[in-house]
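Re: the request from the purification team.
They wanted to know what the chain is likely to look like in 3D before they choose a buffer screen. I agreed to run a prediction and write the result into the notebook, where they can find it.
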Amino acid sequence: MNKIAVIGLGLIGGSLALELKKNSWATIYGIDKNPKHLEKALERGIIFAKADDETLSEVDVVIISVPVDAIPSVAVDVLDRIKDDALVFDVGSTKAAVCDAVRNHEKRKNFVALHPIAGTEYSGPEAAIYDLFKSKVNIICEKSLSSAQSIEKASEIFEGLEMKNVYMDSPVQHDMHIAYVSHLSHISSFMLGKTVLEIEKDEKSIFNMAGSGFASTVRLAKSNPETWTPILMQNKEFLLKSLEEYIKNLIEFKNILTKESADEILHIMQDTNRIKDVLAGIKN
């Protein structure tokens, strides 16, 4: 990997560029439709040089880190331009649309559909940090449609970041599961923040009275809306299903609270406490 191009220099793309510059000694080129992002990435040393579409025919690896609604068309365009042995992968949190877009491309074998599950609530090149991916999980979808060389190269990149690679055959299954464990939590965080802002008009009171529990629960509401709106729209089908279940549980809890059934509230919370063991098992 002598030359790497990163398209999209936000939190994920920028952090990958930082890590790969450190780990691979490759020349990192940056492409971003926002000229301010390019300048900031150069200023911070995230990339070595700006690039354009012509550069894509010369590099060994292309990383696509743009909003998910743009990924399918960008992926096809990139595959049209790359050299025969180049690796292309995207890092979007939805996989079905991009997998559909590239499925019949003559260079589909060069593409790896993956999702490094990592991030913060911050965005842009300023948010790029080292060790963002350490000890996290990287999901690789449709492994059988990528060449062995492409899978090996992509796997090595993320193992070098100390991530655990996990393989899923179906990008649709990926999108379903990620709707429940990631995308729904962002909606919940945004809506909790919205509710409190609407009920509590005195913003100073929010600042003075908000404890760590509130702060941690609404942390995701600080995420970039321009990033998350396309994600939620692209995964609408599975999100609607998860929202129906979530709303049902909220209504059930409201009804129990209305009739002042402390035993039922205790039972629900005790049963849900099992999530501690589930999450502990994931970390181990």
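For the purification team: The chain has two domains: 3-169, 174-283.
Please add any questions underneath this entry.
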